[in-house]
Amino acid sequence: MKTYFARDALLPKGWARNVRIAVNDQGSLAELTEDGEGGEPLRGPVLPGMANLHSHAFQRAMAGLTEVRGAPDDDFWSWRELMYRFVQRLTAGQAQAVAKYLYIDMLKHGYTAVGEFHYVHNGSDEMLLRHLAAAKESGIAITLLPSLYRWSNFGRQPLQPRQKRFDSDPDFILKLLEKIRAHASPDVVAGIAPHSLRAVDVDSLKALVSSLPKGCPIHIHAAEQTREVEECVVTLGKRPVEWLLENMNVDEHWCLVHATHMTPGETTALAKSGATAGLCPTTEGNLGDGIFPLLAYRAAGGRYGIGGDSHVSRDPAEELRLLEYAQRLTARRRNLVVGERSQAVGTTLWLEAAAGGKVLGRNMGAIALGARADLVVLDGDHPDLAGRSRDAIANAFVFSGATNLVRDVMVGGTWAVRNGHHAQEVQAANAYKHAVAELLA
Ligand code: NGQ
Ligand code: ZN
């Protein structure tokens, strides 16, 4: 048992002062005493660790490479062609180097767990296990989500040559699931990811989901693009979110990634299902997806979390800021994501998105008794936090721009980042540079 002391701590009910925090040998929070004393002082305000619900790690190495007009009507689909071209060349060693560097960067910005939505199978388990190795070396908790990817589009259209590396069927995915479960620990969780209703057929989806162990996380891309919604209506007779809610037992184990294009009815129904919406604001902006109806969804009690997806950002504060800004730009009002617990946007966004981490299949996302000891300690000496207390701390964190205010990060009771640094950051950056230079050569 180890005991810490935080002058300011973000608990589920809001900010508290002088909190004594005990972490047991299993890496869980075993004691929380407000107005307490004693314990090793934390060097700044402490918040719950953030989950990165949605990652395609290899896309980190593409950041900035697709920001050149290549066609008069560049869009999500033309970006996808470039991404396919990029992934053709990726070796297992490069994938591991990219993922490790990425996961370390995420940790340094306050992410303590990642959902790796993995579809670059190349017909074996090697790529998947490379991501597991990268996570273990970095110290981030991982939920590995091997992705079922069978078709190039609705109506069982065969994979295009460039999609062959993703080819998979339910049996293969179940084998991968067993592989991951052999490594299961508090830091390693196994889930599955039917890629999208475009890439799976109804029979395979149902066969896979019905063979899962109880409580297994299920992540799926849904309704990111309007063309996808239209084609879904033509082939399945329903919109993607509508179809999923009517045909699958969508519950709290499901994460619908993006869910951008929903009718008001779908928005309310998804909120009531208990599923989590996996929102990826910087990638959705980068790809021109559209804007998630967050206000209506929250009003109906919907759960959500954030994902880095293509990793044009590795910073949860940036994701949350953009999430709120997209709503402001639409509504032409300010301070929209607030709730009963706080009228401060930064506090509300951090608490709600962190709580969304449960859809990675672990008890995380809150500084609460029994939860994982995933802690983000801000730099209490930083000028951006001068004179700030309680809600003003979280608001400075989320709304001060590009400064990283994170100082120390604990994952399941173990420090992964200390004083802004990770023990392997230099080695990982060098390996990443080498891998990218090879990839782009
Ligand atoms: C992905 N990314 O799986 O990496 C996708 C592109 C697709 C996003 N949807 C591929 N943001 O959706 O077909
Ligand atoms: Zn994705």
Strand content: 15-25%
Main β-sheet, in a few words? Answer: 5 strands, parallel
Helix content range: 25-40%
Can you count the helices? 14
| Overall CATH architecture of the largest domain | Alpha-Beta Barrel
How many individual domains?
2
Poorly predicted residue ranges: none
Number of beta-strand segments:
17
Q: Judging from the principal axes of the Cα atoms, what is the shape?
A: globular
End-to-end separation: 50 Å
Helix/strand structural class: alpha/beta
CATH-defined topology of the largest domain:
TIM Barrel
Average pLDDT confidence is: 98
Provide the list of bound ligands, each named once. N-carbamimidoyl-L-glutamic acid, zinc ion
Short summary of the structure?
The chain is an alpha/beta fold and 441 residues long.
Report on this model:
By secondary structure, the chain is α/β, with parallel strands linked by helices. The chain folds into two domains: 2-48 and 371-425, Urease, subunit C, domain 1 (Roll); 50-360, Metal-dependent hydrolases (TIM Barrel, Alpha-Beta Barrel), CATH 3.20.20.140. Helix content is 36%, strand content 20%. It has 14 helices and 17 strands. Strands 6, 7, 8, 9 and 10 form a five-stranded parallel sheet that branches. A hairpin with a 2-residue loop joins strand 1 and strand 2 (14-23). The chain starts with a strand and ends with a helix. The relative contact order is 0.17. The mean pLDDT is 98. Bound molecules: N-carbamimidoyl-L-glutamic acid and zinc ion.
